[in-house]
Amino acid sequence: MKAVVQRVTTASVTINNTIRSSIQKGLLVLLGIEDADNSEDIVWLSNKIVGLRIFNDAEGVMNCSVKETNGQILLVSQFTLHASTKKGNRPSYIKASKPPVAIPLYQQMITQLSQDLEKPIATGEFGADMQVQLLNDGPVTIIIDTKNKE
Does the model's pTM come out above 0.85? Predict the structure, then answer.
């Protein structure tokens, strides 16, 4: 499971010219799922995302988490995070899970993030053609891979 976590002042997902979800201060999380991912990856990744100390404290030091700042989370599925560009110029998405595997894991991640954050999170729509807008704050962008837990 791969996640691109961006600290944002605002973010939204639009589908068919209609805003599906939007948040203010918090995290936009782009999530890529592969067949080897499981519930343990979800628990670990959700805990990591909610606990990341990437928000400023009173002294302006990144020392607070999204939970501590009462921030929001917008989770968007993005299979292209598992693109392989090893050969040629057309990315291969063979590592990305197909919907029968990915959708249940995506739904589990929504539930886990909501539990860890202790409030509902905003989401995109799995498999939809989405337009994602964000104002990256900092910018702060962090990539997390559950297969590389260094």
Answer: yes
